[in-house]
Amino acid sequence: MIWRLIKVIIYMAVLAGVGLVAYAYIGPFFFPADFAAPSTEIRVPVVLEAE
Q1: How many whole angstroms separate alpha carbon 13 and alpha carbon 16?
Q2: pTM of the model as a whole
Q3: Whether the Cβ atoms of residue 14 and residue 6 lie closer than 8 Å to each other
Q4: How far apart, in whole angstroms, are the C-alpha atoms of residue 22 and residue 28?
């Protein structure tokens, strides 16, 4: 009985991994706004302390 539960958990983990990889490769075609990089430029001044 416990081995059946472990097998189901392993199969679900593999299926979730395949689904995640598929979403990463196919997702930009169906949801392009979710995968777009931010288009605004951000400038932050940095002060370096030299000794």
Answers
A1: 5
A2: 0.60
A3: no
A4: 10
